[in-house]
């Protein structure tokens, strides 16, 4: 969802410091993202395959993996300032950044909404009846995403009207703020019912995991969308291209979620933090 005047290419006319920043960000994203995908893939083998949450995380691993495949091509481009892989693949690499961002946002939303349903005891657990249902639902989500996104990338990429950008920004900000408000309410409610070291309670840890994902949404996705408001109003100012690219690269940092999630979920780390909180 670029502004109406943006090009359907990896256009980047900027100073070397911006190139260095982009190369650093994408290199860190690639290394951390690959490590997180590998580690989480092994952990998923031990998780309940019928759980809707597990299915959402599996899909998150898939969308991260698809995006990570395109990252080395971005790094090569920013390092050499040349694109040698053809126009169509250029659109794929450019569009994959947006495809990854919105699908990641969708699976985060599913994960967090399910946590809310369980917390308010509307559901004890949210599960599929059979593995086939989980697979069918995942396929349906991907088909819907592809049907919506692919035509945009290849036919209208860079030609969307400003109104569409504003609607997307407003919807995303509203959803993130709503999820944050609900999460703060749930954490306060949990804290009031617990005593002693909060880290020893599984319910408190579960709420912190949800807050962790909301934090990623706020840090990775909001800067890009807030800047886009200014960017689409001043699209003729070529000096903003480099800032826009950096804001978009921040959305890719969400690939580190699985890596950080695995680290923060380790028993040893929890024990150390618990010890520090007791001190």
From TrEMBL:
UniProt keywords, alphabetically: G-protein coupled receptor, Membrane, Receptor, Transducer, Transmembrane, Transmembrane helix
Location in the cell? Membrane
- The name on file for this protein is G-protein coupled receptors family 1 profile domain-containing protein
The molecular function GO annotations come to: G protein-coupled receptor activity; oxysterol binding
Provide the transmembrane region boundaries: 20-45, 57-79, 99-120, 132-154, 166-187, 208-231, 243-263
Residue intervals of the G-protein coupled receptors family 1 profile domain: 35-223
Among InterPro entries, the record links this protein to: GP183-like (IPR047160), GPCR_Rhodpsn_7TM (IPR017452)
This protein's GO CC annotations: membrane
Q: How does it sit in the membrane?
A: Multi-pass membrane protein
Q: What is its main location?
A: membrane
Determine if Chaperone is one of this entry's keywords.
no
